Fold these 2 entries.
Entry 1:
Amino acid sequence: MSVEKLIVDHMATWTSALQTRSTAGRGSSGKIDLYGIKKLRELILELAVRGKLVPQDPNDEPASELLKRNEERKKELARNNGMKTTASTNIHGNEYYIDTPEKWSWIRLGNLAKFIDYRGKTPHKKENGIRLITAKNIRKGYIDLNPEEFISEEDYISWMTRGFPKCGDILFTTEAPLGNAAIIDLDGKFALAQRSICFQWHTPEISPFMLIQILAIPFQSQLSDKSTGMTATGIKASKLKEIPVILPPYQEQIRIVSKVQELMSLCDQLEQQSLASLDAHQQLVETLLGTLTDSQNAEELAENWARISEHFDTLFTTEASVDALKQTILQLAVMGKLVPQDPNDEPASELLKRIAQEKAQLVKKGKIKKQKPLPPISDEEKPFELPEGWEWCLFEDIIDIQSGITKGRNLSNRTLVKVPYLRVANVQRGYLDLTEIKQIEIPIEEKEKYQVVKGDLLITEGGDWDTVGRTTVWCHDWYIANQNHVFKGRNIGQDVDPYWLETYMNSPFSRQYFANASKQTTNLASINKTQLRGCPVAIPPSSEAKKIMSKLHIFYKLCEELKNHIQSAQQTQLHLADALTDAAIN
């Protein structure tokens, strides 16, 4: 079967095998790896280096003749430039890591190229001058000129003493990341530094095929086997030079490179179409979900929901679309649109009156510190119109906010006790991550002061922009304290469901409030206690809050089931893509 037929016959598998990334990129498609197309690219490269991509021609000059010319050129360079080969010549039987066709030959990498090695060297950088290329610029198959770094003309002359890379050479990364490679196609001079080596081929015409070979899985596996290091794996030049590589006849190399370029262009088209389709699908989902949040009343909401329900199976087919559905349901919940209002419910205003009276008593008894009053919520600060029976209040009106333990205090001459405590990493949006609980020593008399009790809210002070104001409820009976980067919020009355407050604080409205109120620096943001006190919160009647939370749990369970179904289907597609590539290779 030709590769073109393999692509066409299994188009659905290549384009539908998707993998969700752990970190989000730009747009909905930025959160997804096109796994099937990635596997297809890997397959094309592997078939190329195994001699299975184009037919062999018995009239081609064998690769052994190419190696003879390589040897002559190598000796000439040694005579003229004093260059000596450090790679051994013999290749042993167990070193041949793939089967190759007739007329192909093996040779060690170090016998094919001069290594211009600038690893471990870092020049003094300037704002402009001669371009500097490091491992950060070398990608898989191309050179990315970002980030832009430069050295001066004077430094360039003294710096480039190990050799000058030129067009057609291959740049290769030896660490962080290991194994990226690209052919040099840059105009003008440039310097080389940091975790990069230049392969300057004795016979430059082999460069396009050698790039294919370096990026293909068989060679990458050799790199992995010979690499060292735990956190950042790398390979020594002495090991790299000894890796055996394969060379087809030169005429076959030309045919292979041409076919790879043709098929990679087809992969590019598939990728663009898939990404465009994913983005269009997500825009459609978000537009239709927007009709729900824009509904003016329960009747309009029911009509819009019925319209979406008719196409549920085609709309919610990606994890991003299910996430959008979940966010829409959350928004409907906190706006009072998820369940109908009951005119017989006690209005939230009565609840707030009772809490205000209880708070006054607690202040009088010294159990809560009296705070300087904050200004009331203005109409501009109210993000939406409340249903009948609901009320706006400040977060501090219903919650006693307390700070946590400050690390690094001078605690000499005090009796200390070691306690577990919660950090920002433990407090996620709507849940706790208790995989790692750290401990800290505090004065024994402060143990009760810093205790987090069941039902307390935990709110993060800062971190990256999406971390600020992250809220969850402590739901355990065992002792734990909170660090000062995690605020503790304790209910003043018992009538406000802490899980309702958790839900509202994690809604788009509170997140927008914290984004506007927080102090932001590069990629970081934080809020202070006063800003948290002043966060506007929508309070429904108590009985309605219970109904909303019950409905919310039903919808969240549905979303989880949808996600599980999608993940299961995706896993099947991944296995199919793997099976197709394995079958094609073997």
Entry 2:
Amino acid sequence: MSEAWLVVGLGNPGTRYARNRHNVGHMVLDVLAERTGSRFSNHKKARARVAEGRLGMMPGGAPGPRVILAEPSVLMNLSGGPVSGLVSYYGIDPTSRLLVIHDELDLPAHELRLKRGGGEGGHNGLRSISKSVSTKDYARLRVGIGRPPGRQDPSDFVLSDFPGRERADLGVTLEQAADAVEQVVTLGFDDAQRHLHAPR
């Protein structure tokens, strides 16, 4: 199996959805691509845009591991097919080298949590991936977007853009999320989780 990490950011393709809450996974990948000095291009086998590079530094000072940053080029609910294709193409063990970044209704806006395995919490993108890679035991970075106000339909809420008051804080959240990914691939999931979840 490959020692590289496959880091998947969930979202919907196209400019129509680019700034939606549901696309926060794509936004984090954009920050990570800048850090690795890489650019996205269409993958030759899977329906995804990918960028490859090394991320961060290992504890001893060596360059960080190779990461494959991937945005499925399909609607989020169909993400499993491209992710499964990439797992196969790169020889990735999804239980140890797959990290999926996604929006999370059940966390307050801008809150970050790392999780390994468990349920999908009604997230159809995760459900598609779990089915396609035949396991739920992969790492996830949950990026809180909060619950819709009043009686707004959650489906409409996740497909709306961040409002001005939240957009002002979004840049910091994306950088913190990228930091968490960097710690997962350089320090390991458990240490990264302890650091992220430590009381502030």
